[in-house]
Amino acid sequence: MHTTLVDTATLAAHLGDPQWVIVDCRFDLANPHAGRAQYTRSHIPGARYLSIDDDLSAPKTGTSGRHPLPTPERFAQALGAAGIGNDTQVVAYDGNNAAFAGRLWWMLRWVGHERVAVLDGGFAQWLKDDHPETAEAPAVTPRAFVPRLRPMTVDAAWLAGRLRDPAMRVVDARAANRYRGENETIDPVAGHIPGSVNRPFADNLDATGRMKPADVLAREWRALLGGLPPEALVHSCGSGVSACHNLLAMEVAGLGGGRLYPGSWSEWCANPARPVATGPEP
């Protein structure tokens, strides 16, 4: 069973394995249709496509953030339609260093599915290692998926009541300039949740775009924890997507147990009554 990462050689050895399902999660926040278009042109043989907007999120309400979680039942329907059952080994990949594949990884764990891993290095590494690609869509046999929800989230009300609680720490996965409130081009308000610290998800990757070794990640994350247990961390980002990459990195490091604030900054800043911080400090 693979529960965090798989390399390209391992995945290549399981192409055509009926117990394995490959999911293409490529996406572009600036062009929501780009990922599906990329999939149509070329993808890993057997992969099926799930969209961050259409399959891994609920409709936006204006106050719920840009990528609110769907109900477990709606997500289970999307999984079943993709041929994923409760005993399926799922491998997710994208073209963005696991920023989007990490969302599917986390969501599957959220509904109780442990057999899910992210392709280390994504589609770029797959092609670099000279593995096959295709434009052919696979034949998919729908399966039943029964969700078993796990308590892995916090909401805005919970968080608002605990800002600057020394027993809890919010980790913001966005790029440092957006955390500081500079060059905000996605959300209507710039800044970060007061008391949150910044750990851009890209810091989990090495120069090749693959995940850093587990011991390196463990050292870096323990420094950020500052003596707190992993379960004290609440992970946030712009809309609950790249924060999942930090949760994946912590799992690789053997430091699992943190929770996700799914609404993240896009939900937090939608309510003008909530406080906002700017600059490099929490």
Q: How is this structure best described in words?
A:
This protein is of the alpha/beta class and 282 residues long. The chain folds into two domains: 124 residues, Oxidized Rhodanese, domain 1 (3-Layer(aba) Sandwich); 113 residues, Oxidized Rhodanese, domain 1. The chain has ten helices and nine strands. A five-stranded parallel sheet has the order 1-5-4-2-3. A four-stranded parallel sheet has the order 7-6-8-9, covered by helices on one side. Helix 4 packs across helix 9. The radius of gyration is 18 Å and the shape is globular. The protein starts with a strand and ends in a 14-residue tail after the last helix. The mean pLDDT is 96.
What oligomerization state is this entry in? single chain
Count of the domains: 2
Mean pLDDT: 96
Any idea what the CATH architecture of the largest domain is? 3-Layer(aba) Sandwich
Overall morphology: globular
Give me the secondary-structure topology.
Elements: E1 5-6, H1 8-13, E2 20-24, H2 34-41, E3 48-49, H3 72-81, E4 89-93, H4 101-110, E5 116-119, H5 122-128, H6 156-160, E6 169-172, H7 176-180, E7 197-198, H8 214-225, E8 233-236, H9 243-252, E9 259-260, H10 264-268
Parallel strand pairs: 1-5, 2-3, 2-4, 4-5, 6-7, 6-8, 8-9
